[in-house]
Amino acid sequence: MRREFRDCESDNIARRLKILLQMSFGAAARSEETYRAGGAFCRAIRQAPRSADTETRDGVTLPTYRGDNVNRPGFTAAEREPDPELLLRGYERAS
């Protein structure tokens, strides 16, 4: 699931958090380690890394989209260039 700055609204965040928490409860209920540890567990979410550093479309190869904090999702050389200003926007949105 791709995250973009435009998704940083309270309703979207609450909806996704609810889904992730529901998923973690299901996994914890099936975990033998949870019972051995007295019922305490840590919920962790991991996103898989990109499989390649570049992607090719119609014979054009560009860097992979790395998320709104690094580059943009459009498929042009300018949009795929890392931009430090995007990280500042990410910090702004996180606050």
What percentage of residues falls in helices of 4 or more residues?
40-55%
Quantity of strands, as a count? 2
- First and last CA, distance: 22 Å
Q: Largest sheet at a glance?
A: 2 strands, antiparallel
**Percentage beta strand:** 5-15%
**Element order: H for helix, E for strand:** HHEEHH
Rg value? 18 Å
Mean pLDDT: 77
Low-confidence stretches: none
The global form is extended
Count, helices:
4
Which structural class matches the secondary elements? mainly alpha
Strand order of the largest sheet: 1-2
List the helices and strands and how they pair.
Blueprint lengths: L9 H20 L2 H5 L17 E4 L2 E4 L13 H4 L3 H11 L1
Antiparallel strand pairs: 1-2
Overview in brief:
The chain has 95 residues and is mainly α.
What does this protein structure show overall?
With 95 residues, the chain is mainly α. Helices cover 42% and strands 8% of the residues. It is built from four helices and two strands, in the order ααββαα. It has helices at residues 10-29, 32-36, 77-80, 84-94; strands at 54-57, 60-63. The chain has a two-stranded antiparallel sheet.
Offer a few descriptive terms.
95 residues, mainly alpha, two-stranded antiparallel ribbon, 4 helices, 2 strands, 42% helix, extended
